[in-house]
Amino acid sequence: MRKSPPAKRNKALATLAVIGDEIAEAARYWFSTLKPRKPPPLSEFMTDHARSDDGARIRPFPFQSDMADAFTDPQTEQVSCRKSSRIGYSTILQCFVAWRIRWSPARTLFYQPTIDDAEKFSRDDLDPVLQWDIVRQVAEFKPRHPDNQIRAKRYKGGWIQIKGANSPKEFRRVTADDVLLEECDGYPWATKEEGDPARLAFKRNLTSPRRFSAAGSTPKVKGFSRIDALFEQGSQEYRYVPCPHCGHMQYLVFGDGTGAGIRWEPKKNPTRVWYQCQQGCEIDEAEKAWMDENGEWRAHNPAAFPRHRSFHIWAAYSQHPGAAWGEIVREFLEVRHDPNLLRTWVNQVLGEAWQEKGEAPEWQRLYDRREKAMALGTVPSWPCILIGSIDVQRGAGARLELDVWAFGSDRKRALVDHIEVDGAVANQETWKQLDRHLAREWPTQDGRRFRLARAAIDSGDGTNTMSVYAWARRHPGFAMAIKGRHAVGVGQAIAGPTWQDLTIAGRKIKKGVRLWTVGTSMLKLELYGALNLEKPVDGDPYPDGYVFLPDGTSDEWIKQLVAEQLVQKNLRNGRSRAEWEQTRPRNEALDNAIYARAVSIALGVDGWGEKKWRAAAGIERKRRKIPPPDEQSELTDVETATVGTKAKAAQSKKPPRRANPFTSRRR
Ligand SMILES: [Zn+2]
Description:
single chain; alpha/beta; ten-stranded mixed β-sheet; globular; binds zinc ion; P-loop_NTPase; endonuclease activity; ATP hydrolysis activity; GpA_ATPase; GpA_endonuclease
């Protein structure tokens, strides 16, 4: 950035001044237009040029000013904002776009959670900005012009593209200077082939010499929140404000009614709401503007400052009437007894990730609400894919347990079948029986037939691992050997695969089979959250993520599905760690449910659009043979995912050497 103009120009101005006032005035104006001006910091630009939807001026609140300036500070490469709603973050982004166009054209890439969100953002948030006076002075965005498409805008020296994080295609073939993530905790989880969407997005500007990255989101689940992780990496700035009575600097918290925080009385229908200072003073809401005015951001991780600035901000600081302390309390009292609503409130109002308790849902409630219209052994009527999951039991009562799950759009899932294959794991006949079940077709109520797209098998138990590997090796591209781990990474449910050596009949085979690692904790929390969703009444639609259990599901199976809970274990160093604890002797249904879900994530089903679901549901009628046993294949795209296995083919003696149908079908 250039600094103030050179001194000799000032000298010239001074000389001219003696010639005459009028000429001097003209000359001063002339020079002022020539003078290379320094771009203003974003907060100043906001004050001068930002307009709300009705054309009114927007004055940034003090807490917003510093956040905004981080976007245009040349020393700052990255900004992460963990936030509640109603704090004006999108206004900052809007102003940043206008500032770019006016002062510093660049290739700017936005990522919204979905392509639909991207279009909505473009229409509602971006298009109005492009009509601000300050933008129109330098760029014209004509309606229906090729340079002004919904998700791609071009102007002199730069462009803006808005993408959806729900499609892998959105991360390809584009290089940008700015990468701006919106609501990144709402992105789909990482798939095995594509990786984490947030990480992929940030790769888009790695080669830019002037790269700038930013992410803003309300956080979702503790331990799996991307914005939480980004906040931790950054400077971790909190807004400290002075108490108007004692001057003590502190950042605002909701509190638990004992120490500092928002307080109210009476407890049920409060008529008085105030903020309790850390030193005990009672602060009236009318002081809020003054407090912010005299506040400052303080970094808890100054090592990252100013390179990566991260901010935590929540509704209590906002001066919008909808975020008044009394309003925050009123909403809390409404939702406090409903875990689902409370969770949303914690995310949206406090701007904090929800600490999932991991309490096991009640099995009786799930048993009583089984779907009368669905029967065990039948595929749901909605478009879906089937994924099998196999648990290996040894010792007395040795058997394989196969659960078949259907996955559909909006993260809904249904149990389709539960099959037990008795027999010792060491016995080949046990595995042949399993193959016969896996090769089956499952009917829908209207007579269509479905086969399994994939089958996951738990290889975790060391004793059986070689048998499991050997079986998985015979079904490349169809069977996925899986090992569970508490967690594999932020926002990631399944990782790998890694090559594993195996021994068959005394012969060691190097890198003979692939092994996927599944982050079980995250998926258990997701399942329990889904099981806690209320079943709709009076024909209302089922909520997203609903788990359908058909009529005929046994009580034993349901008990197994909820057989663990998350407990806090105290460690010696005074900290505590969350651990899953088994509350019943058997938990195979839970493990199987988690592994099937992990496979669905690996296939990327969370990002599928309607068209892809229909294609997936239509393709299963075609039959294809299982690939030759000695070929290993990658997981490929959807179409290959909906083909089943044929046990007979797997046993054929000398398979012809040919391309694997699971991979070669790609065109
Ligand atoms: Zn005080």
